[in-house]
């Protein structure tokens, strides 16, 4: 009797295998919520490079206090094109620069603070790391992101909700208009 059951089981398994090749089953329904087109593109990027460059590069400290002297910032040989070339050659599609970290030092000449490249000796206070970075990325057809820290240890209005939000939004607008 067990041989009969084994034969029947094998016959049904074979029949099911043959028939399943000819059946047109509908695909399963998607599990909601579905990702947006932008979310799918983000996942398909695979490689994103983050450049964490700023005042701490020159103070050799992990945590900036916001009291650093802007004259310490002097990247004499800064070459944003070289940074971006390395990213592009390695297959990165998006490069992100820390435009301002929690120490409050701005890598662009912000009109909202003197704690920026405009108070540094680099290019006689006329330099703009953000602009150079963005132009280099555009030349290589890479997408650009900027990180603007919401914490600013240099700004005296930090912690005063309305005043600081206006300050922060002003800096954000500078970067968006850049």
Automatic annotation (TrEMBL):
Keyword Signal recorded: yes
Signal sequence annotation: 1-20
Keywords: Glycosidase, Hydrolase, Signal
Family that this chain belongs to: Belongs to the glycosyl hydrolase 29 family.
Enzyme Commission (EC) number: 3.2.1.51
GO CC entries: lysosome
Gene3D superfamilies: Glycosidases
Protein name: alpha-L-fucosidase
SMART domains, sorted: Alpha_L_fucos
InterPro entries in alphabetical order: GH (IPR017853), Glyco_hydro_29 (IPR000933), Glyco_hydro_29_N (IPR057739)
Ranges where the Glycoside hydrolase family 29 N-terminal domain occurs: 71-175
GO biological process: fucose metabolic process; glycoside catabolic process
One Pfam short name: Alpha_L_fucos
Molecular functions (GO terms): alpha-L-fucosidase activity
